[in-house]
Write a structure and sequence with these properties.
The complex is a heterodimer of chains A (about 450) and B (about 260).
Chain A: E1 42-44, E2 54-59, E3 66-72, E4 76-83, E5 93-95, H1 98-106, H2 111-121, E6 123-125, E7 130-136, H3 138-146, E8 159-160, H4 161-171, H5 173-181, H6 184-196, E9 197-202, E10 205-210, H7 212-228, H8 233-244, H9 273-301, H10 313-331, H11 334-346, H12 353-384, H13 389-411, H14 414-420, E11 435-437
Chain B: E1 2-6, H1 9-20, E2 25-31, E3 34-40, E4 46-53, E5 57-62, E6 66-71, H2 72-79, E7 87-92, E8 98-105, E9 110-117, E10 125-127, E11 135-140, H3 141-152, E12 157-162, E13 167-172, E14 177-182, E15 196-199, E16 203-208, H4 209-215, E17 224-229, E18 235-240, E19 246-251
Antiparallel strand pairs in B: 1-5, 1-7, 2-3, 2-6, 3-4, 4-19, 7-8, 8-9, 11-15, 11-17, 12-13, 12-16, 13-14, 17-18, 18-19
Main location (chain A): nucleus
GO biological process, one term (chain A): RNA catabolic process
Protein name (chain A): Ribonuclease H2 subunit B
């Protein structure tokens, strides 16, 4: 994160620098200003970007929804991640200008003046949101245009760079504006295209077609880079530790306190960073609790080895796959996502089979543990549940009715039984011929 | 309270025997005009209506309208204890829990007394209007019983066709078909054997034989039976009794569903 900070944080309370978008006016009046439609937002932007940097609206590669990106013609694109306080935490930003701080620190003005200045230029942002710009590979932004429009379309044509750019321009006006404004962008795109496309040279022109194999290789490289320094602790906890946790079979009661987490669907990954963070805190608490229990168990029962040993290469594979899935779910268009997944299964770039077999073994152990637990649950439930009178009465009522019915059947005369066999099709009921009389008292 | 004495317990026996194979439980509605009963079979396609007028009893006393809900199986069991010529006295309180049956044999001064527990029966009552039927056939009960029995061997249903020439009962079944035709005859010597047909309009209707055979169990009640038919309305089979009392059966015709 630190590298995205535009300036080293000052020692004072206003640690973040305010970079409001150009259309945001700064409030100067001393009286409480009316609520502003365009409230200032707090951004962390990369430093040393060119002066032409701007915020553009482009389609999100994964969802297709228009999203904001920060574009620097020299460094490329940045995506924004919103970091927000939990909703029930009432927090706000107090933003003051640097001048007021400086004047206060230098102390050469009157204290009243400096206070005035501070109050006058300060601004409170109601929502404590922080938008952090992080670099995003341009590749992902152009992928939606390169990807097949739907699943069925398997055969794709080679197209010139110009045609691809044209497709981008028609997809969004912002792209068009960017192309006209920054010719360097085209070169950047071309470089990316070469990386993931099959090319054919026709005369002087080069034609491009997306190659899923190349894309996969690239993704894999990115995933490996993600894993190199280890996954963020929240992801590590959620998807690696819990997934590989082997239940201890011999103890049933302690088992029940374990949080059984299955392989989480990818969609959960795309939640905001804070959400994951807040989850991770609870996660750590629970895992800490379980580990404590485990220790106790080991002390009491002298069980030192779990029934299944995790092979050393498994965590690395799982991390890699988690990273890949994260990339696929948050940056790949839906049309590409499934085909990349299937390609991953068959590709010889990396083999996930040991991981799959290990996870299956863990799942089996877990289901066994769950079955054992449900058995013990059942027993306790039977013992614990006192039949309430209502239920007993209900059952007796049912029984009585049933008996009555049976008795009635037994006392039925032969003639009535015979008549039951009679074919009454086409015969209307008596009530359709004769009118019902009001009941006599 | 109710107190009604029948000179012959046999009448009651026959009535109950005739009904018990059609309905299980029913209300005997007692009021000052007599004892009436209306009930439907389980599938509600047939209806039985009985009226024993107060004149049939002597003495007859009914202070209030009382509904006696009786299981006909139980009543049959008790009535079995009565000899044919016993006098039957039916007694009940105004708000009764039981109905009291007393059988008295005149010769031996033998008095037997039975109580039958009553039950609450929730029955719907249908209003049956007086109808002018297109055809009315009167015939000996034995004749009707025989026709129904013979044809039921062939088929489940019988078509009763009434024309100027007479009445024709015809059935078609898996093994073949059969029919019985009766002409209107007036047997002066034996009036009870004659077949009388009163026809205003030719009519042909199909009925379930199983039900008709069931109705024939009332044959012991009288010598003659009358069938009343009109298209699109239930057949009325009436067994008349003394003093304008009657036992009537209604049966819905089979419509549309041709076999």
């Amino acid at each position: 994160m630190a590298r995205t900070r535009s300036k080293p944080a000052p020692a004072a309370a206003t640690a973040e620098e305010l970079e409001s978008t150009t259309e945001v006016p700064t409030a100067t009046a001393k009286s409480v200003p009316p609520p502003d439609k365009n409230r200032p937002k707090l951004f962390l932007l990369p430093k040393d970007t060119s002066e032409d940097s701007r915020i553009v609206t482009l389609d999100n590669p994964a969802t297709g929804a228009p999203s904001r990106y920060y574009f620097c013609p020299e460094k490329g694109f940045y995506e924004f991640t919103r970091i927000a306080a939990p909703k029930k935490d009432c927090r706000s930003w107090l933003i003051t200008s640097e001048e007021s701080l400086a004047s206060k620190e230098s102390g050469n003005g009157l204290t009243t003046d400096s206070e005035n200045v501070e109050l006058g230029t300060g601004y409170v942002v109601q929502a404590a949101n922080l938008f952090i710009a992080t670099p995003i590979d341009l590749l992902f932004l152009i992928l939606p245009v390169l990807a097949p429009k739907n699943m069925k379309e398997t055969e794709q044509h080679f197209l010139e760079l110009f045609d691809h750019l044209e497709a981008l321009s028609t997809a969004s006006r912002q792209w068009k504006a960017l192309f006209t404004q920054y010719p360097s962008l085209k070169a950047m795109i071309e470089k990316k295209m070469v990386a993931i496309c099959d090319t054919v040279s026709v005369g002087d022109d080069t034609m491009y077609r997306i190659s899923q194999e190349k894309l996969l290789a690239l993704l894999l490289k990115k995933a490996e880079r993600v894993c190199k320094n280890g996954l963020p602790p929240s992801l590590e906890n959620k998807f690696i530790k819990t997934a590989l946790e082997v239940p201890i079979m011999n103890i049933k009661r302690e088992e029940s306190s374990l949080t059984v987490v299955s392989e989480n669907p990818d969609s959960q990954l795309s939640t905001t960073a804070t959400a994951i963070d807040s989850q991770s805190s609870t996660e750590t608490v629970s895992t800490a609790a379980t580990s404590v229990i485990h220790e106790e168990v080991i002390k009491e029962e002298f069980i030192s080895t779990p029934s299944l040993v995790t092979p050393p290469e498994i965590p690395r594979l799982l991390r890699l796959r988690t990273a890949l899935r994260y990339l696929a779910s948050s940056y790949l268009p839906s049309t590409l996502r499934t085909s990349i997944q299937t390609l991953l299964q068959s590709s010889n770039l990396i083999d996930f089979t040991p991981l799959d077999t290990h996870l299956a073994a863990v799942a089996k152990l877990r289901s066994e543990a769950a079955a054992l637990r449900s058995i013990s649950d059942n027993i306790s439930r039977k013992r614990g549940l006192e039949e309430d009178d209502e239920k007993i009465a209900e059952r007796e009522e049912k029984k009585r009715k049933k008996e009555e019915e049976e008795k009635k059947k037994k006392t039925e005369s032969r003639g009535i039984k015979q008549l039951k066999k009679a074919d009454t099709s086409g015969m209307k009921k008596m009530s359709s011929f004769f009118t019902k009389l009001p009941k006599k008292t | 309270m109710l107190e009604a004495r029948l000179q012959q317990a046999d009448v009651m026996k026959k009535v109950v025997d005739a009904i018990k194979d059609l309905v299980q439980d029913c209300n005997f509605d007692c009021n000052d005009s007599g004892i009436a009963l209306q009930a439907m079979d389980n599938s509600h396609v047939a209806l039985v209506s009985m009226m024993l007028r107060s004149e049939s009893f002597s003495p007859f006393r009914c202070d209030r309208n009382i509904a006696l809900g009786i299981n006909l199986g139980s009543l049959t069991k008790v009535l079995r204890a009565a000899a044919k010529d016993d006098q039957l006295t039916i007694k009940a309180e105004d708000v009764p829990d039981v109905v009291n049956l007393v059988f008295e044999s005149g010769e031996q001064d033998r008095i037997s007394e039975y109580d039958i527990k009553l039950m609450d029966i929730d029955q719907e009552h249908l209003g049956i209007p007086e109808t002018e039927y297109a055809a009315t056939i009167q015939m000996p009960v034995a004749e009707f019983q025989r026709i129904c029995r013979d044809l039921s061997a062939l088929s489940e249903s019988v078509t009763i066709e009434c024309t100027k020439e007479g009445v024709k009962f015809s059935s078609q079944g898996d093994i073949g078909s059969g029919s019985v035709q009766l002409r209107a005859t007036s047997n002066i010597e034996k009036a009870e054997n004659s077949v009388e047909i009163d026809l205003t309009e030719p009519v042909a209707l199909t009925f379930s034989l199983k039900y008709l055979v069931n109705f024939c169990k009332a044959s012991g009640l009288s010598d003659r039976v009358s069938l009343h038919l009109s298209s699109e309305v239930p057949l009325l089979v009436e067994y008349p009794m003394q003093n304008n009392s009657y036992l009537r059966f209604y049966l819905a015709p089979k419509i549309g569903d041709e076999e």
